[in-house]
Each structure stands twice: as C-alpha cells, then as structure tokens.
Known about the structure:
Blueprint: H1 3-20, E1 29-35, E2 38-49, E3 55-63, E4 66-75, E5 78-84, E6 91-94, E7 100-101, H2 108-116, E8 124-130, E9 135-143, E10 147-151, E11 154-164, E12 169-174, E13 180-185, E14 190-194, H3 198-205, H4 210-215, E15 216-225, E16 228-237, E17 244-250, H5 267-277, E18 281-285, H6 302-317, E19 322-332, H7 334-345, E20 351-355, H8 362-377, H9 388-401, H10 413-420, H11 424-429, E21 435-440, H12 449-460, E22 466-471, H13 490-493, H14 498-511
Parallel strand pairs: 7-8, 17-18, 17-19, 19-20, 20-21, 21-22
Antiparallel strand pairs: 1-2, 1-14, 2-3, 3-4, 4-5, 5-6, 8-9, 9-11, 10-11, 11-12, 12-13, 13-14, 15-16, 16-18
Amino acid sequence: MTIRSTLAACVLCAAAATAQRxxxxxxxxxxxxxxxxxxxxxxxxxxKTLADGRRQVRSAxxxxxxxxxAVTTLDGVEPVDFAWGEGPDARRWPIxxxxxxxxxxxxxxxxxxxxxxxxxxxxxxxxxxVPGVKLSRKGSIRYAPLRLVxxxxxxxxxxxxxxxxxxxxIDIFFDEAGRTIAMAIPSQNAxxxxxxAKALYWKIRFAPxxxxxxxxxxxxxxxxxxxxxxxxTLSLPREGKGPFPCAVTISGSGVQDRDGNPGGANLFRRLxxxxxERGIACLRVDDRAAGExxxxxxxxxxxxxxxxxxxAVAFARGHDAIDPKRIVLIGHSExxxxxxxxxxxxxxxxxxxxxxxxSKPLDAIVLEQGRYQQSLAKAWTPKTKPMRVIRQLLAxxxxxxxxxxxxxxxxxxxxxxxxxxxxxSKTVASLKCPILIVQGERDRKVLAYxxxxxxxxxxxxxxxxxxxxxxxxxxxxxxxxxxxxTELDPEALATVDSSVLATVQRWLVxxxxx
Length: 514
C-alpha cells in the first residue's frame, strides 16, 4: 500500500469507524443533482434516531415540482429496510440477503454502501437490492487512490470510493471528517454535489490521480474562443527538459469533459498519464457546456467545435513549456474527423491520431449504425424499415440540408449541415503528416472497416506515413467488450485497454523525437 492510498483509507475511516460504532456516516446537507450542466433535482438528506434506538436516513427529493421521500432504516450498522414515502401508505422493502439498497434516484444509498460495505483496495463483491423492481444486482466496492486538492489556501486529502454496478460505476467523495462532498456517475454525466461544495467538487473531479502525480505536473488552464471560456488541464512531464511535444485531445460527439466522459473510461486522462511517462505533454479541455467550461448562449455548429480545438492548439503553441513545432492531435470518434479537418487547415500540425474515426459523413454513419443495430436483433434486408429514432435523425439532416436556420440554443441545423458536407475520407486524402489509426474490433458505433477505409484514402492521396492497429475484442471506447460467457467487473469493462495506450505512446515517442 502506498502512502497516498494509505491516507485515502484514513480519510474514509472516519465514515467506516462510525459504522463500526453503530453510528451512521455523516449524512446531512442538500445535494444538487445535475446531468451535464443542467440541474434537474435536489436531495436534502437528514439522519435521526428512533425511539427503539434504530436510525433512519431520510431524503427529500425534489424533481419537476414534486417531492418524494426516501427512507432507509438502520439497525446498528446494517440497513434493514427501505421505504418510498412515510407513514402507513409507505411502500417498504426488507433488505433480505442483500448487503445494501440501490434505489433509482436515491443518492444517499451510495454513501451508505460506501460506509457499510467495507471497501478494500482491490475491491470486494457485494449484492444490492433494487427496490420496486425487486432486482438483485451484483456490484463491487473499493477504495480509490487519495486525491490531493488545493482549496482556499489548504491542501485537502479527499477520500474516494468507487462503486461498480453491472452497467456503470459511481464515484463517492468524502472529506477528512467523513462528510460526503459529492457523488458522480461519469458514464451518464450525472453529479450529486453538496450545494456548499460546488467549487471544491470540480477541483476534485479533475484532480490528478496517483499515477498522474508520479508522471506529470498538471495545471488548470483557461482559454478563450470568441468570448467563450474553455477550461482544461495541461499535463507536463515530470522528467526531462522542455520544450515538450504536446498532444491536444479532441472528444467525440455529445458534450464531454476533458477526461472523455460521459463514457466512464477516462480515455483522455489515461492517455495524458501514459504520454507524460514518456516525455510528451497533453492538453485536454472540457467541451463547451461540460465540466468547468462555459455554456454558450446560442446554438453550436460543427465549425464552432472545430474552432474550440483550434483555440486549444493556439494555447499550446503559446505555452513556454511546449514546442510549437511538435503539436499532435488525438481525436476520438467525431474528434478524429475534427483532427483531420484541422490538420488539413493547419499544415504545421506534426501528426494526428485517429481513434475510432469514421470514413463517411455523419448522416451515412447514422444510417449504418441503425442497420447494424437492427441486424443484431433480427435479419435485415433492403426492405427493412429503419428504426424510428434513425428516421427522425435522417429527417433532421434533410431539414438542415434544406437551409433551416438555428434559432434556439438546442437547434442543430448548422451542426448537421456542416457534418453532412464533410467527408472524412476526402479530408484524410489531402493530409501529408504522419497518421496513426486505431480501432476496436467490436466497436458497434464505428465498424472496424472504417480504419482501413481511412488508411486507403490517405495512401491514395500519396501519404504512406500511415499506421493502422485494430484491437481484438475492444469497444468504441477501447474498453473490453462485454462477453456473456465471462463475468467482468463493471470497472474492468470501463477500463481502457493498456495495449491501446502503449501503442499510441510508442508511436508518438518515435515520431516526436527531435
């Protein structure tokens, strides 16, 4: 056990010790629940002792103008029953043979699980009851490395527990007194943050991990694109002398933070750590309306997103510790297409890495994805009617092509029109810089053949500095593909395969030598 992880366990022992004494953990306060930048609910948590000596943890959950009451009863250190509502009309469920409850939209359950399920560094299995649907769900619980956060002139030691469920992981953060600061589900971009700790939470969210601290020096950076504030992290290698080559990461479609979430795999954070180990800096920035970046006041086009990354490149080039002649773009999914466009427009880009990138415009990809998903469920023929959601998306493309204007902030006409007019294969065919193309064999969003379609386009354009690597049994996020014959922990399913990180690392180290 390292010093840092020992400290992490000590931070959490404040909550664990209360459980051993038959006391509940520190459960009090109001938490704001948000999905992305949008607050959708609040949960006010209180704890009281009953006349028979048992304790109750009570949540008042306000959502959409409605308040629901959720109550968990504790007998000593054990949760014994859960109820929606109070009084004679309450709906109750006993714990039975399970370790804890995990009701949908009841965040205090996660804190109880962290406190009473005895997490370990390696993780231990637990059985959870999902009330209402009476489902039994397998899970795992473990201590994560301590996070050191500077806040209001002090260095705080933040305890971190990771709860792995069958479909996602949940982060639970505690202070040194055992008081809950926040809970988060990265794959859903969902957060429950104590209302008096919002500023602290974002520092915790993006604080360097133990591995990052050992390989990198990190600094919070803020840059501007046409008046819009974008915030991120610059990781600089601890070893070696600058100026360093620098990778600028570019996220896929949808609003994602600097780590590459939602998705839960922290792809860009792990890449930054791997690159820092070998002397390469990395700049990763929250998308607009994600993490600490500002929310735009109007609609966002695809060219706006491209300009956001161009602003990040300009920032990196202007940094004293960065070699402006050795800027590399690493784009994932839609970000791979953006990387190609920027490299075509900026010949000073030294190289690009295309991760799960498409070889066709977005409208063609939408149709392909729909047909593929249908064929997984039943036989597909040219007469098969597209799924409703695919028909709706294709109709949106047609409306955009017809010249519809964006009016509301949620409108996507410009975004879709610009995407449909951009052909990744034609863009890549114009590039002269080195290109690394990596792809997961079991990617259901961008099928594996796209890797070689992009490579052939580049070679056809006269560029033979192309490398392709397809990884067996990996998903769109380069995590293990769920195999029904093998039981994998949720955290394992959300972990980027180390061979992917090593491949990108080795290729860039070789290519970025002076």
